[in-house]
Amino acid sequence: MSGPHHLYPELQLFIDGEWISRGSRKTEPVLNPATGEVLGELPHATQADLDRAIAAAQKGFRVWRSFMPEKRGEILRKAAELLKADGERVTTVATLESGKPIAQSRIELHMATEVLEWYAEEGRRAYGRVLPQRQPGTRLLVVKEPIGPVAAFTPWNFPQGNPARKLGAALGAGCSCVLKAAEDTPASAILMAKALQEAGVPDGVVNLVFGVPSEVCPYLLRSGVIRKLSFTGSIPVGKELMKICAERMIRTTMELGGHGPVLVFDDVNLEHVLDLCVTAKCRNGGQVCVSPTRYYIHRSLYAKFVEGFVARIGRVRVGDPLDDTIGMGPLIHARRREAVHALIQEAVQQGATLHTGGESIPGPGFFYRPTVLSDLPDSARIMNEEPFGPVALLNPFDEFDAVVEQANRLPYGLAAFAFTENGKRLKLLGERIETGMLGLNTFAISVPESPFGGVKESGHGSEEGIEGLDACLITKYISEA
Q1: Which of 89, 145, 169, 481 is the most buried (most CB within 10 A)?
Q2: Residue 253 banded pLDDT, cuts 50, 70, 90
Q3: What beta strand segments (E) does 70-113 contain?
Q4: Residues 6+ apart with CB under 8 A from 80
Q5: Is residue 346 within 8 Å of residue 381, measured between CB atoms?
Q6: Residue pLDDT, tens place only, 60-95
Q7: pTM for this one?
Q8: Which of 293, 295, 307 is nearest to 403 (CA)?
């Protein structure tokens, strides 16, 4: 392969400190979504590989939990430094396999290394407490301990950030981990595992496997070794995994789908808000779990908002994601493009107005034109199912209570956004919007020290922040007489 493709690493499994090539294993091709070109052949873990990974995690947990938090933190910080030092390769690889614009991959790497550094420090603050005595000569203690081997299943849309969140929390807490990263974007997880290995993570503490998700994930969870699951993915898959976890009372953190509402009130700086809205919508081609999707605009601004949104999205450059000037790359694969297109076509058939987009871009790769629909009925499937693509849904509103009801209408509650200069309204929105994360006058809702997670069918538990660390810890009460 020519150009930057020489940076793409050999695709391997990582089990008990050993990098394992394909050999006679079943493989699947990993494609560059911008060209359709095969980047490499990804080996699938055999049952023997999975058994070995499970045993390694069990052994690795005993070793890693004995490391003092300061030492664990040193290793996580060193891994972050190694990733930053190799940044141009790491970000190029992420863009090659995900189709994300290179500028966004650089931001993601910064986020991923910040997460590792955060957990390097926060792992030193897994505090317990001493309770007041009930009688002389006794002690009542509450301590925090690592929960045990963690299974982590990550999607493809943030190939650096998602593994960092899950590995950072587990390792910072003193747990080992079996990571099944996305088969569409495996090399980014491989580079992260290599950095952790080089930084000094002992054999067996981090294990990386790939395969058919419906086969690999249940097998790991039913092993009797895994004590915690961290899953990011779709609601239906999340529910099935929870059923399996219930069999052994495995603790779960579930970051599932959303359908982010955006409320735009009549007192905003319209031009500024439009710039923010279009940029946020086109981020990673709309393939973001917290992507703004359902825009509700006060009727007094509605016509101008629609006009301004359409004009701005028409200026977004779509093309080679390795080009620094590109605003949006391809979708991850043909299946995603077809799913988005079907939702758009159905909405138009139900009366929605198509202003721009609504079609694939001719040529190689899985490109789709950024799309704007307006005046959609609530019955349209795209108003009820997460589109996960570059499509904005614009509808007007008149009254505060009515638009809050619309924002809360769906059974999802991952992220929501609102724009207004009215201080009292901001407070009311904070009280009444049903969501795990709320951006008021901003789309920036994730930093390493803040909890990341949803409510209702968007899941439970949080990654990042002190909540992410606590999810990998158990609380033990000790009474000494």
Answers
A1: 169
A2: very high
A3: none
A4: 113, 114, 116, 117, 120, 195
A5: yes
A6: 999 999 999 999 999 999 999 999 999 999 999 999
A7: 0.96
A8: 295
Q: How many CB atoms lie within 10 A of CB 401?
A: 10
Would you tell me which CATH number, out of the four given (2.40.10.330, 3.40.309.10, 3.40.50.1000, 3.40.605.10), belongs to the domain 3-256+458-480?
3.40.605.10
- Residue 176's pLDDT band, with cuts at 50, 70 and 90, is very high
Q: Which of 308, 310, 327, 309 is nearest to 319 (CA)?
A: 327
Contact at 8 Å (CB) between 285 and 326? no
Rounded Cα gap, residues 45 and 26, in angstroms = 8
User: Which positions are catalytic?
Assistant: 255, 289
Using 50, 70 and 90 to split pLDDT, how confident is the model at 1?
very low
247-269 as b/e: b if 16+ CB within 10 A? eeebbbbbbbbbbbbbbbbeebe
The C-alpha atoms of residue 426 and residue 80 are separated, in whole angstroms, by: 37
Considering the domain delimited by 260-448, tell me its CATH architecture.
3-Layer(aba) Sandwich (3.40)
Pair of tokens at residue 86: 């190799």
- CA atoms of 185 and 158, how far apart (whole Å): 9
**CA dihedral of 238, 240, 241, 244, whole degrees rounded to 10:** 160
Name 144's bridge partners. 475
Going by C-alpha positions, the residue among 213, 205, 192, 197 that lies closest to residue 150 is 205
383, exposed or middle or buried, with CB in 10 Å at 0-12, 13-18, 19+?
A: buried
Is residue 466 exposed (0-12), middle (13-18) or buried (19+ Cβ within 10 Å)?
A: middle
Task: Give CA–CA dist 23/420, Å, rounded.
Answer: 58
Residue located via tokens 């000037």:
325
Question: Is 441 within 8 Å of 265 (Cβ atoms)?
Answer: no
What is the C-alpha separation between 210 and 217, in angstroms, rounded? 10
